[in-house]
Amino acid sequence: MPKARCLLMSKTLYYQVGAILISLVFVAIVILLAGGNPIAVISSIWGGALGTSDRIGRVLATLVPLMLCTSGLLFTFTAGLYNLGIEGEIMLGAIVTTFVLRLTQDNLPPSLAILLAVLAVVRRGIVGRVSRSLEYLWACE
């Protein structure tokens, strides 16, 4: 007969919960060594991040690009590849978008300026992908 499995928690879930608890204990020790109160620090972080609706909006605005990076990494890791520059790609896309919008904000209608910014980012992404594909194709370093 097969062993009875615990349906409550699997082995990997134990590892994940254990890792979170160990990291919280480590952070509490560092806070205590710095002369602070861990409970006061945690309540200050909680209030600073989720204290008002404006702060929640800021947390979500920061979280969305990170979740986008994570979803992109899920595909590459599942395929057995590693893309460690995904945050930089998002940063470069933001820089290109800001550059195009700053150049066109006073000269074009907003809808056309936004369209040009999106097209510039798409072009930058295509050029980046083609250059990486050629690098892998020709085994250049």
Topology:
Blueprint: H1 11-33, H2 38-50, H3 53-78, H4 86-104, H5 110-138
Number of helices: 5
Which range best describes the helical content: under 10%, 10-25%, 25-40%, 40-55%, 55-70% or over 70%?
Answer: over 70%
Instruction: Assess the beta-strand content as a share of residues.
Output: under 5%
Overall outline: flat
* Sheet having the most strands: none
Q: What is the N-to-C order of secondary-structure elements (H for helix, E for strand)?
A: HHHHH
The total tally of domains equals 3
**How large is the radius of gyration?**
23 Å
Distance between the termini: 55 Å
Mean residue pLDDT: 83
Number of strands: 0
Structural class: mainly alpha
Low-confidence stretches: none
Summarize the structure.
The chain has helices spanning 11-33, 38-50, 53-78, 86-104, 110-138.
Structure write-up:
- This protein is mainly α and 141 residues long.
- The chain has three domains: 11-51; 58-82, no CATH class; 85-141, no CATH class.
- 78% of the residues lie in helices and 0% in strands.
- It has five helices and no strands.
